[in-house]
Amino acid sequence: MNSMGIRLEPSDPLVFGPEIVEEVKRILPFSQATFFPCDQDRGLESILDTIAMSQRQRERAWKRLSSNTGFWDRLALRALVPLSSQEGLPCLGLYEFTGVPKDISTAEADRILLFLQAVLKDRLFFAKLSACVSTDDQPPPFVSRMLHDRQSRPLRLIQMSCHKKAPPLDSGRKMLERYFPSSCLRFAGRSCSSLWFRIKGNNNNLSEGIRQLALHLSRSGMAFRALLGHEIHKDCKEIYHWQYVARGLNSAVFMPSAAREILLKTGADLKSPAFSPGGFSAMPGACCAMISLESMAAKKRLEDFFEKRWRPEIQIIEAGTKCLSVVFPRSVIQDEPDGLAGWGARLFQDILRHVGSALYAGFARASEAGVSKKFLHFHALYSLIHAQLLGPGNMAVFDHVTRNVQGDLLVSWGDIRGACSAYKKGLKLNPSEPNLLNSLGVVLADLKRTKQAKACFEQVLSDMPDNFMAIYNLAGINLDAGQIDAAEKQTRKAYSMAPQNPAVLLRLAKCWEKQGRFQELLNLLLPEGPQKGNLQLPLPLLRICGRAALETGTWQEARQILTLCLHNRANDPLCLALLAKGYHMRREMARGSRLWEACEDSEYNRTYARAILTDGFLNCLIMYCESMPCLI
Length: 632
Fold this sequence. Notes:
CATH architecture of the largest domain: 2-Layer Sandwich
């Protein structure tokens, strides 16, 4: 039973209570049953204080309940039954049964209480077990149960799906616990290919945790079909809707913040009918125009404009309070000599003349540029996002550049594999586009497919030898591969093209750091020294300067730089370790030890903090910190 990893929680008796209580009535007649859940702020003793009884009875009750034994109150004709999940775990709460029979002997009452306790626990467990399992790929019934118990708060869920069958629960929970506190994570069930977890916290925590987990899974080579965050307000239909939206956006990763981001950028509301399953039907060759407007009045004028000009040939569908989606049949644009781009530009100018104002417009045509008729609205949405990047008053047609925009958006959500697919589809439309090749190379490198990534950058440089991004990215590939001299040569070339670019400076500093050229590093970044030089460098560069000053034996400069780093980011583990090393080198063991203890407490350094501070460990710590995005 416990192989499922299911544990009872204080909210479960509230969810499954009615049927459990009806079953208890067959064992013990009573008039009313009430459950008092325990939580962090309220234990059994606090619950007992809220129940009306004499002080003597309360003392007797507490003596029994504190040993996880029920209490039979003959004076008030009630039974108090504590409910626990498993041996050694905290109590879930207290059941109070009032109106129990009065002609029960003491021995019989003790037997009834033990039996009641066992029945409540077992029936509750089996009710939850059956509700946590779905034989198909639908959300488990327990999700619907939790929706009834959520009160006014939205229910936040994580859906982790694999291609064939659901991952093992223990491994799924461990992966989630890397990015979500275990106290906020609750198992909600499993279906054929998915694990479901309830998360307590706000939307930012949910979205950022999913993004980080998706990046971790992709970089580790662990394939997953979907990693979705759901924020449910009414019923399970919202789950199906967001699953459909993720498929329409061609993303394996989706979370509430992504929908809000799109709404803020374009005015398109992913909850609207345009993005709902069965919201419309498109024929091959149909075209969708998605227009974002400044006001609801402008939207109404636009609807009237389309009504007068094309009704009943077109479909006008709500895409947001200030956004409209219009589907045109193939016959409207099939005779246009310059295709969708020319027709869309002329239509957008007509809209500007008749409506007065329109922020952006995106166009997509089914069966053109890889656009599917099933998800035509979503392709038009990507075109709208593309137009938004161009600025107000612009329009865009779904093309290879839109594929680049799509890939960049998927990367920001953590879906690296989806972004890789989008970039490749864009290259089918324009095989030599340097921006697409650079973007594809970056995600391939992130997926540890180094040879393919290198080939992308080299293809760009074969056509454009001075392409800055290809030079910079290729230097990063060589640096990670340990080819320091080649990396330094390429980074120097990038530095000559953009000498003030912090990313280029950081890469050049890393090359010199690995070569041990610490004095040159200081001369480049702080030519006048930290007293007179510019200490407004980004934290990663300041950190490298601190280590360089320490390695060159200029302790006062190193201490000044590293102290400034700690002002910018308190308890930065690498800065603490470097300062600790400096004090140990100066035989100031007490100060060094205190700093090292602070480094041990750092949330980024729990594993490495047990080691002894040596040069070898310091290099290990540097590599570890460089691998953490939040530290770089």
